[in-house]
Amino acid sequence: MRTKLSIFAICILLSTMVLAQDRNPMYYGFDATLSGFGKTSFRRNIPLRNYYDGYSSLNIYTFGRRYQVGGKFAIFSKNEKVGFETGLRYALHFKKIEAADGNGFTENYLYLQNTTNTNSVDYYRITKVIQNTGYLGVPLELVLLPMSKNKFCRIYFKLGVELNVRIHENVHVKAFDSQFKDAVKSIGKDFKKSDVYYTTWYAGIGMQFGKPGEQKFSLQFLFPYLTNEKSSGIIDTNDIIGFTFEYKLPVKR
User: Fold this and answer.
1) How many CB atoms lie within 10 A of CB 244?
2) How far apart are CA 127 and CA 109, in angstroms?
């Protein structure tokens, strides 16, 4: 991790040296990212009945997505072929474990241990667990645009790292038996929380639309979209890819 950070820091330093000139083009705007398309699996971070390996895709369903939106600032070389972008992003991590209907005829449920009772081991039937975690992140991105800046459509490549800190988290547990909805809600408050900090690494390829010195739209495909999360909540999300929409306006000087 330290080697990767050092290499990326050197790239950022070189790019800022190139851009450290008078009247370089600058832009501001926002971006929105949807990521999390890949394999998901549940963790042992919630007290389901202790034979975890007994659960299969026939009776348990996992789902995970990341939704991000934020403001950004970008500065480019005079020919707009090299750029550096940063800003502030809010990310919502949505994760779900749900009982699947395996045979199509009966309602399925999972067994959640009552961890609030230390005198005995008993379980509640539940249908789903939803975890929403909010992070605030700072992206650092190096952008390369090999085509002439005078072209309206330009392909570009991006390397980025994002540092994130958790700002909120909540868990919703839905009981199979409605009379126990308050009890399972109390158990959910004791679930192990997601990481306080995590780092994301990503590469991207995209298409930018717009003339030099005017507003620009971009559509971007991120591959891969990797994190160093160690305790990422109720499920793992692997082999992640993402899609980003960007909108930028020129800074008038």
Assistant:
1) 21
2) 5
Report d(CA 223, CA 131) in Å as an integer.
25
Task: Dump the DSSP string for 141-206.
Answer: EEEE--S-TT-SEEEEEEEEEEEEEEEEEEEEEEESSGGGHHHHHHHHTTSPPPPSEEEEEEEEEE
Question: What is the CB-side half-sphere exposure of residue 170 using CA atoms within 13 A?
Answer: 2
Q: What is the DSSP string of 57-101?
A: TTTEEEEEEEEEEEEEEEEE-TTSSEEEEEEEEEEEEEEEEEE--
Distance, in Å, from the CA atom of 16 to the CA atom of 73, rounded to the nearest integer, reads 14
188-211 confidence digits (pLDDT tens): 888 888 899 989 889 999 999 999
Taking the C-alpha atoms of residue 253 and residue 132, their distance in angstroms, rounded to an integer, is 42
Contacts (Cβ under 8 Å, ≥6 apart) of 53:
none
Cα(184)–Cα(180) distance, rounded to whole angstroms? 6
Measured over the CA atoms of residue 181, residue 182, residue 187 and residue 188, the dihedral's sign is positive
Of the candidates 251, 209, 246, the one whose C-alpha atom is nearest the C-alpha of residue 25 is: 251
**Top-ranked range on mean pLDDT: pick from 34-38, 40-44, 61-65, 85-89:** 85-89
3-state DSSP percent of the chain in helix, strand and coil, to 5: 15, 55, 35
**Backbone φ, ψ for residue 233 (5° rounding):** 100, -145
The tokens describing 156, both together, are: 């570009």
